[in-house]
Design goal:
Elements: H1 10-25, H2 30-37, H3 41-48, H4 56-66, H5 75-81, H6 86-97, E1 100-105, H7 116-124, H8 132-145, E2 156-162, H9 163-167, H10 173-187, E3 192-197, E4 211-215, E5 221-227, E6 230-234, H11 237-246
Parallel strand pairs: 1-2, 2-3
Antiparallel strand pairs: 1-4, 4-5, 5-6
Helix pairs in contact: 2-3, 7-8
Length: 247
């Protein structure tokens, strides 16, 4: 019979093992390392046994305390990825490095452009329902993606939003008011282009559903589509070309 105990992610387990090995390699106890990091030995033990995940602050402190040459600090990127659903992690890696991102949004505003409250409302309406801790973890992860808008080198972000997505009152009137204001702020950026497909335009090529086109640093175009907790990433030029033109 399953115990229900949450198992740490592979990246979390690997980080814990690396931390143990590096600490042991320089002859430090958990208390010794904790003292150098301004943490308790119990806090170090909790991370090494995967009882608690390592925070960004913990990772930075361990990197400095062990003079790890970037080995400890590098874990942050991969631990951050695991805040996202498994089917979405590969896309996030591509998005973070993209030269351009173009999305077609039919029923929800693009996650890159969502406010915290809007994202929270979206995540709470899923089924089966998520626990509040998981919702907040996913909201934080979604907000971190927005760093792409201000990243250097610049990423060009183009979004076409169906009017229906703007009219859907996710989270209520105040949440939508703040979301509209945020969209206007985003649209003021020179690297962001927002367009709205009006409801009165009944027939158009995007009615088959949402998609995102990513241009990689190698100038390759990929199409990402997500539906009901699954996703597809297409790279075949013929498929990408047809789907990209639908936007």
């Amino acid at each position: 019979m399953a115990s229900g105990k949450k198992v740490a992610s592979p990246a979390g387990q690997y980080f814990a093992e690396v931390l143990r090995l590096m600490r042991g390699g320089v002859g430090l106890s958990q208390n010794d390392l904790g003292s150098r990091m301004n943490y308790t030995g119990a806090a170090v033990s909790a991370v090494e046994t995967c009882a608690k995940p390592a925070t960004d602050e913990f990772i930075d402190a361990a990197e400095k305390a062990l003079d790890a040459g970037g080995v400890i600090g590098a874990a942050s990127k991969y631990l951050h990825l695991e805040r996202y659903p498994e089917h979405f992690q590969g896309f996030v890696q591509l998005e973070q490095e993209a030269l351009s991102v173009a999305s077609w949004c039919t029923h929800l505003i693009d996650g890159l452009l969502q406010t915290e409250d809007y994202a929270r409302a979206v995540l709470r309406c899923g089924f089966p329902p998520l626990g509040e801790e998981q919702v907040e973890q996913l909201v934080l992860a979604r907000m971190e993606r927005a760093a792409l808008l201000t990243r250097a080198p610049v990423c060009v972000v183009t979004t076409i939003i169906e009017e229906a997505a703007l009219r859907r009152r996710m989270g209520g009137a105040e949440t939508m008011k703040a979301q509209y204001a945020h969209l206007l702020t985003c649209a003021e950026r020179s690297n962001v282009v927002l367009q709205v497909m009006p409801l009165e335009r009944g027939e158009h090529a995007g009615v088959e559903g949402p998609l995102t086109v990513i241009e990689t640093p190698e100038y390759e175009r990929l199409v990402y589509m997500e539906y009901n907790g699954t996703s597809s990433l297409l790279s075949k030029p013929a498929d990408v070309g047809v789907l990209a033109r639908r936007g």
